[in-house]
Structure formats: C-alpha cells, structure tokens
Structure prediction request, 443 residues.
Amino acid sequence: MAVKEGNLEAPTRHPLDWKRPEFYDEASLFHELERVYDHCHGCRRCVSLCNAFPTLFDLVDESATMEVDGVRKEDYWKVVDHCYLCDLCFMTKCPYTPPHEWNLDFPHLMLRAKAVKFKQGEVRLRDKILTSTDSVGSLAGIPVVAGIVNAANRAKPTRKLLESVLGVHADARLPEYHSKTLRSRLGSGADASRRGEETAGTKGRVVLFTTCYGNRNEPIIGEDLAAVFRHNGIPVTLAAKEQCCGMPKLELGDLESVEKAKNANIPVLAQLVDQGWDIVAPVPSCALMFKQELPLIFPDDPQVKKVSTAIFDPFEYLMLRHKEGKLNTDFKHPLGKVAYHAACHQRVQNVGSKTRELLSLVPGTQVDAIERCSGHDGTYAVKTEFHETAMKIVRPVVNRVKQSQADHYGSDCPMAGHHIEHGMADGSKTEHPMSLLRKAYGI
Prediction:
C-alpha cells in the first residue's frame, strides 16, 4: 500500500505519555530520533524555521553516507539543543503530522529528548537558574537588589564576568527587574465584585494571569491591558496567588517542575472559572501553556481542561467581543504604520491574527504583519553558545521592520519585541501591541 505524500487534514496531537518508563529510555529515544530525522532529511521543508533543521541537514550532508545512518548518535543532541519548542514546524510546515501514518511531532520528540537529558542530570547550572523565573524574580525584585541587578546587567565588566562564569552572552539583552510588581500595582481584589456583560463566547470579566515576566520585568504591559479592558467595560482582577506557568521548565525538560507549577496554579484558576471568570495572559507562551501543553501533559485532569477552555490571548478575547458588537471602537489617535511581529506561540494557538485585525480597526492605521520567528525563546538568545545564531534568525525580521519604515514596531511576545529592538541597533524602541491600543484609545 502506497504512503500518501502529505497530510491534507488538520494536525492533531497525542498526549505526552511522560510517566511511562520507556519515555526516558535512551535506546528507545534514539530509535525514534533516527526515524523522525530520516523523514525530515527526506523532506527539508522546515529548513528556514530555526537552527535545529539546518543543524540536522548539515550533519547528514557531512556524513560518510549522506544519510541519517551516517550521523553519530551523540550528534543527535546538537539538533535537540537548537530546538526551542516554537511549534511552528508542527503547526505550519510539516506534512506528516498525525493523522498521517508517519506520525511526526518534531517538537514533542525534542521535548522528550530534553526530558531524557534532564533526567540524566546533563543540564547546566545556568539553565536551571535561567528557568527558575519565580526564584530569580523574587530575589532580583527586592528594591535595593533590583537597582544593583539592573546596573550590573548594563555594565560591560559585569557582563563579561557573567559570560565567563555562567555562560550568559555579554552582548545579549537581559530584562530589567521592577521592585513594584504588576500584582502590587493592580491589587488582587481589583474589580472582584464587578460583573461584565456576557457574549456568546466570553463572560465579560477576566482574571489577568500576570506571568512572571509581566509581573516583574515589564509590568506596564499588564497595566495597559487592564486599562484597555476596563475601557471596554470588562472588569479585571487577579488570582489570589500564582506561580510561573511552567513553560521555562518545560523547555528545559523538567517535567516534574511543570507538574508542581500546574498543581499550584490550576486549582486557583479553576475555582475562578467556576465563579464565572475568563482568564487572559499577556505573554503568548503562558496562554499556550494552559491552552495546549498542560492538557497534553495531563490529559486526564478535568481542572486542567476547564482552565484550558477558559484562557484567552488578550486580542483574541477583544475580537470575540467585537464579533458581538461589544468592542469600544471610539479610537482617538491613528497609529500610522505598524510593523507587527506575530509571535510564534501566539500563531500556534490557532486563533488567527487577532492582534493585526484589531489594530487595523484603528482609523489611520496600516499594519504590516511579519510572520517569522524572532529566535529569542526567552533563554535561547541569551546563552553564549546560541546568541549569535539567535541574532542571525532575527535578522530577516529586523530587515522587514527597517524596510517598512513604520511609525511603531513590536510583538505580542515582549521578549521577541526587545530582541528585534536589539537587532535594530538604532535607538528605536519596541512597543507592545496592547500599549499601542491604549495609545489609540487615548487613555
């Protein structure tokens, strides 16, 4: 029976069977890596997405057989190390995803490999520190410490020392820390007693999952979100407590820490859903974690499923309201030309280009959408061994921004936006789309 060339059906995902002993068996892993690498070598459609695929294809082309069987097994890890789980290959490129009989899920295979590596203890101290966002943020956010950390991150001598000791590239941009967090600015009881106007797809009142980045590194995004939502008659409150969504630990392969974060966050959020609240997260990776990754890692947890159906990308939420005639379109200021980078972890949520659609509603605004990975990933771009590659990946995005001669540029992912800003190297500043929307409203 002939194998069909490509998959014409929508890709489907299987749960991640990560508690099965065979999941961590290295021989079994290498057998599957070889199978999938061979299919990727024969296709090569994903060569432009990230550096994982060029790394694989170079290994094959430079081997004695010019096939996957000529690549040393220990070199398989080089491909794994360059994958930062953006999911674009699975969602936008690969013709062999399930239900195709070849059953390729490259990102989740890379996740399995990272989990095996983590279980074997082959993880650098740097990577454990960089992914411990709550712990690092709590320390760096202490008022006096925050100033010292921010100053040290801008000082060349300190950065050179950080590079040599920890492996954080001296030229990579590191986020600033704010001692006055978003949670302290908004207050956990904000709008708690108010009710919004429901639509077919929304409750009209939202819990803002602040995210570790939004809480301590760039709280202005959450402040702008709260202002925009309240301007649209949508009450905004915070959960009584929250931890990191777990995405950084997922990308490290530390699935037990992901489970701990899930056990801390899900009961709190599920209770709020039961009380009639929707949830929004200003960082796409965090929304994706609750929408897609946790349901695949914990497929039998009903509370995880409950939260996954109640969490939204902020612009997705506003456009659902617009569909029912509930969006405030009384914009005061045109934005001119906006070069808008669509973040990978927003694109793979399969909600459409809602940010572009909403900004385009502002009179006197033209949105130039750039659908290409920035190469940041939260930690990948700051690591010594990957920083130059990350700057290479972002170069086409930077070129598009420069060619557009836009009045504003930015990304739903604030880290991607700053990575683009770093590549621009002209003193211009990224602006988050939510901040642009607040500017358009004049609030």
About this structure: The CA atoms of residues 35 and 68 lie 9 Å apart. The first strand starts at residue 206 and ends at 208. Strands lie at 206-208, 236-237, 278-280, 311-312, 336-341, 365-370, 408-411. The chain has 22 helices and seven strands.
